[in-house]
């Protein structure tokens, strides 16, 4: 359910919007750097070291943000699964008077999922504080350069440089966040592709080599001969050589698991 709701919504809507924002902010950075470097060539030296710091902070953030996003998606799946199962078995839950227990389990799953989401928000603020600090350093360095070169550039050019450096500072922050956001949202693509291509498919509904007669089944007879079944390939069998025959019209009760 999580893959066909949240993940599909991320693939259809959020990834495209994040890429659009990333392209826009990246274009602003390129334009601002070109303009400022034309007026003040020494800016490139300062920008080089600041960009290295930006890249290191973004790289450090992406490693944890990607795993936190994956953990958030897994825990959300458990929450959706429990909620769906509770709705489908609501009559049974009410009949046995287990409403309080299922409600407590749902609240606990919501709290656990919120832990991962809260860590994601805290992680974003960690990145934001460091990027803002680097932006302040970049603005300070450009302001000092304008003071040093006040006799070689006009006051109008100084105003243009200071104006664009503020825009560049905001664009750097948004670009680093959008790069991480695009990578985090690709987790939804990974989960959908896993469902589409990596899960083992069930047998076909109809086998062409041995077609079923049109009047089948002519009677409600079931014969099982030496049936061995297990829940997963790596687990031990739970049915070990079961053989039984159920006659047409016979009533059978299956007790237990």
From TrEMBL:
Give the keywords, sorted.
Answer: ATP-binding, Membrane, Nucleotide-binding, Transmembrane, Transmembrane helix, Transport
Q: What does the record say about its membrane topology?
A: Multi-pass membrane protein
Compartmental location: Membrane
Pfam family for this entry, one: ABC_membrane
Q: Name one GO molecular function term.
A: ABC-type transporter activity
The ABC transmembrane type-1 domain, residue ranges: 1-184
- The domain of life is Eukaryota
- What are the annotated GO cellular component locations? membrane
Concerning InterPro entries, the annotation shows:
ABC1_TM_dom, ABC1_TM_sf, ABC_transporter_C-like, P-loop_NTPase
The residue ranges crossing the membrane are 29-61, 133-153
Family note = Belongs to the ABC transporter superfamily. ABCC family. Conjugate transporter (TC 3.A.1.208) subfamily.
What is the protein name given in its UniProt record?
ABC transmembrane type-1 domain-containing protein
Q: Which organism is it from?
A: Rhizopogon vinicolor AM-OR11-026
What are the leading ranks of the lineage? Eukaryota, Fungi, Dikarya, Basidiomycota, Agaricomycotina
């Amino acid at each position: 359910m999580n893959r066909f709701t949240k993940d599909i919504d991320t693939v259809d809507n959020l990834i495209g919007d994040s890429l659009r924002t990333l392209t826009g902010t990246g274009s602003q950075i390129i334009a601002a750097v070109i303009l400022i470097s034309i007026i003040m060539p020494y800016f490139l030296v300062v920008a080089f070291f600041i960009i290295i710091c930006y890249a290191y902070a973004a790289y450090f953030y992406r490693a944890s943000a990607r795993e936190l996003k994956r953990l958030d998606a897994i825990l959300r799946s458990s929450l959706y699964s429990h909620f769906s199962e509770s709705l489908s078995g609501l009559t049974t839950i009410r009949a046995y008077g287990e409403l309080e227990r299922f409600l407590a389990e749902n609240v606990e799953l919501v709290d656990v999922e919120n832990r991962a989401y809260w860590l994601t928000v805290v992680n974003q603020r960690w990145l934001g504080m460091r990027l803002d600090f680097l932006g302040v350093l970049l603005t300070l360095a450009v302001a000092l350069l304008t003071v040093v070169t006040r006799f070689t550039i006009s006051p109008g050019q100084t105003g243009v440089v200071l104006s664009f450096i503020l825009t560049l500072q905001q664009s750097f922050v948004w670009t680093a966040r959008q790069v991480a956001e695009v990578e985090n949202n690709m987790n939804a693509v990974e989960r959908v592709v896993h469902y589409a291509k990596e899960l083992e498919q069930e047998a076909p509904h109809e086998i062409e080599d041995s077609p079923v007669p049109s009047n089948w089944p002519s009677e409600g007879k079931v014969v099982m001969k030496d049936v061995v079944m297990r829940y997963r390939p790596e687990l031990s069998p739970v049915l070990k050589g079961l053989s039984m025959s159920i006659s047409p019209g016979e009533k059978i009760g299956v007790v237990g698991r």
